[in-house]
From TrEMBL:
Coiled coil, from the record: none
Protein name: Glycosyltransferase
Domain Glycosyltransferase subfamily 4-like N-terminal per the UniProt entry, residue ranges: 15-168
InterPro entries: Glyco_trans_1, Glyco_trans_4-like_N, Glycosyltransferase_grp1
A Pfam family the protein falls into: Glycos_transf_1
Example GO molecular function: hexosyltransferase activity
All copies of domain Glycosyl transferase family, residue ranges: 178-296
Statement: the UniProt record of this protein carries the keyword Transmembrane: no
Amino acid sequence: MKKIKVLQIIPSFGVGGAEKLVLDYLYFFDNETVEIKAISMFENQNTINDEFIREKGLDVVYLDKKPGLDLSMFIKINKIIKEFEPDVIHSHMNTMKYLIFSKGKVKLFHTIHNEPEKDAYGMDKLANKFSFKYLKCTPITLSEELAEKANEYYGINNAIVVNNGIDFKKFISLKHSKEDLRKKLGLPTDSFIIGHVGRFMDQKNHDFLINIFAEVVKVKENSLLLLVGDGELRCYIEEKVKKLGLIGKVKFLGLRKDIPEIIKTLDVFLFPSLHEGFPITLIEAQVAGVRCVISDLIDRRIVLNIDTVPVSLNTPAREWCNTVLNNEIKGTPIDKIDYFDINVIVKQLERKYREE
């Protein structure tokens, strides 16, 4: 089998679902059959992902993009393309506009990581639409529902689905009990622990999440909430926690490398997002066997076991609290959890790259 060259392009390796997925592509593709390189349009920001890239010696070129439309990126990206001579270019987020003059005979793919209208608008929507219609770029979405929305949003009919994937081994290899992991992380072993992993931004709906937790504490005083992540709304949420008298009940853990361990300590993973693509952290929680209570606005195919329960965002926080605390309330699994193994996903994607 001929080895192919693949170039991934992303704005940066900040901490988020799209960035984590590209990082997994770099790490998990079989280097016997795929030579893979990535461009980060912004400089190294020394995030957890950037540290991982350095530790593992992954092939990433960091550019020095300025905020907004940076015309120098056309020249710099084109130079890298000419030197690397990829068979495939795979873009992510708002990078396609810098590729519309660089295609040549290279196959183009672009992943839509969120609801299409949230993922790209204005100039980015125009660039994506042009590439899908005239550059034979293949649009990739993370679920069937998002593929239908992408086809409608861009006026196309060829969006394909490649699932997000996770490394199952990170969870399977954790042999410690929940109690031992709590001791290791300095958490009380007798608490009812709820957790959330996500960037502090409107989409993740931390404001409502805190309202739900405030109701849980009224019923179950030994409850604890772990919030993993960072972002522009963190200070606002910290202030809200103070106003509601929940200091000591809510722990802000920041950005972490030990996500599998943290998730395995939880009794419930709470995820009331306003909208999502196909969130990796929610797949991780289900692989870890944690009960999940989630927004019903998230694609139903994310329900992978009976302990994942969608709840309407129109439902009051008190009712969400009842669902969090009542293990008898079950969900209906839609898909098989095995479909989200990253090792399966990269093989599926390689086949797409090789198709004529």
